[in-house]
């Protein structure tokens, strides 16, 4: 069924709380990684990607906080998210948005694979015609 207005507000508040909590955890982990880097240790590729994502999230947090702090500005958030889809920090994304991004990436990979397969088939035809 449909949720009441109160339940929608509570769900949104929980979503923001969880997002800030996850961002705080990511920030602590990233600080440890920076500490390790400063002391001469090398990060793995996975750790480097996580550090870059966390830094990007912290930079995205500044414009996002304007929407949270300024009264009634949160009503404009959907408009700005439509204009700038990458504005939200990654910890604030919903599961449906994550799935949508994964589907887009998968479709792009499938298109690339299809293009490469056609290119190889075309090259094989040319090579066959040249040698035949």
Descriptive report:
The protein has 132 residues and is mainly α. It has a domain at 91-131. The protein is built from 4 helices and no strands. It has helices at residues 5-38, 45-69, 77-83, 95-131. Helix 1 (5-38) packs across helix 2. The longest helix has 37 residues, at 95-131. The radius of gyration is 22 Å and the shape is flat. The mean pLDDT is 88.
Q: Encode the helix/strand succession as letters.
A: HHHH
Major sheet attributes: none
What percentage of the residues does DSSP assign to strands (E)? under 5%
Low-confidence segments, given as residue ranges, are none
Distance between the termini: 68 Å
The count of DSSP E runs of length 2 or more, i.e. the number of strands, is: 0
> Mind telling me the C-alpha Rg?
22 Å
Give the CA-based shape.
flat
What number is the mean pLDDT?
88
Structural class: mainly alpha
Spell out the blueprint of helices and strands.
Layout (H helix, E strand, L loop, with lengths): L4 H34 L6 H25 L7 H7 L11 H37 L1
Helix pairs in contact: 1-2
Main location: mitochondrion
Membrane topology: Single-pass membrane protein
Keywords: Membrane, Mitochondrion, Mitochondrion inner membrane, Transmembrane, Transmembrane helix
């Amino acid at each position: 069924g449909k949720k009441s207005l109160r339940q929608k507000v509570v769900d949104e508040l929980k979503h923001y709380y969880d997002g800030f909590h996850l961002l705080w955890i990511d920030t602590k982990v990233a600080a440890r990684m920076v500490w390790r880097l400063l002391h001469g240790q090398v990060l793995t590729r996975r750790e480097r990607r996580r550090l870059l994502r966390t830094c990007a999230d912290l930079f995205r947090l500044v414009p996002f906080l304007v929407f949270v702090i300024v009264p009634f500005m949160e009503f404009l958030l959907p408009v700005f998210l439509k204009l700038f889809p990458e504005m939200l920090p990654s910890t604030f994304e919903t599961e449906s948005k994550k799935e949508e991004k994964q589907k887009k990436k998968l479709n792009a990979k499938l298109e690339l694979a299809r293009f490469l397969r056609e290119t190889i088939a075309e090259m094989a035809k040319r090579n066959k015609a040249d040698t035949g």
